[in-house]
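Write out this protein's structure.
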Amino acid sequence: MTQVSGYPVFIRELVEHFRAYELIDLGVEGKAYSTRHRCNSVLNKWILPRWQDLRISDVRTIDVENWLRSLRLARGTKAKIRKTFNLLFNHAIRWEFAVRNPISGPVRGAGVRQSEKRERIPEILTAEEFRSLEAALAPRERVLVCIALALGLRRGELAALRWQDIDFERLTITVQRSLVDQVIGPTKTEASQRPLPMDRRIAALLLRWRSVSKYVDSQDYVFATDSNRASQKRGKQPVWLAKIMQYHIAPAARAVGISKKIGWHTLRHTFATSLLRNGEEIKVAQELLRHSSCRITLDIYAQAVGVDKRRAQSRVVKEFMPELSSV
């Protein structure tokens, strides 16, 4: 690293230092792989090309704000760029390379302003659309979409499920890991690891899948790859869900007349929307979705009991998958 006066002076040097001390694998004490991957991507694609030759002390709040406004990107993407830039300057202050953070500003509202509000409402599926899609899928894909919607799992959590995570007696599923770019790591937040209730019909569906799956050991992934290229890792390597969506589920959706642009997160959004439409308590919805924090709901609503969460999930399953038999 090129340094002046013993510490980074330019943004490119600060980025190098940030990567060396913050974006390394520190296990449970450090940032998750997904966070490190996202930060590196933003740094390489957006921050370094524009700011690398500028001195740390010369970065101005309004300049960064005007630059973000000039980018023809979605608000969410701009918000991620702002967040990464903010992390970079927090690192600089922590290491005493800088005394101010031009991204956050000295007081609330004085820093770079960038809206995170969605520009369009995320797509969701109606019960009729989901049932027509489910009926058009092969067994593996059918189980995948049913589990994803019934539990509101994130894509990485769904891919990383192992049979040992499923308790068929207690009817619970514990999400213990996540997969990002085929790299296994911890879940997004500690809240993500809370046990989830499993509707009896979903348990029956999983048992039927296990009865025909080649990989049923406790350490095997529920949805393990059977690719010839992974012959030495069969059962021990999860399928690539992005490819499953691209080559199997999305084409099936189009074939049954669903014109919406769908992805794995569509099923999570559908689950959340259905919970709210069914009038479930906000606290119940928050815990089922395993969001890390929801200060307003935590202050207002009492702790949701297990039976409430199980009933809330069962309503979604009944609405979207009425044909599933109960064990």
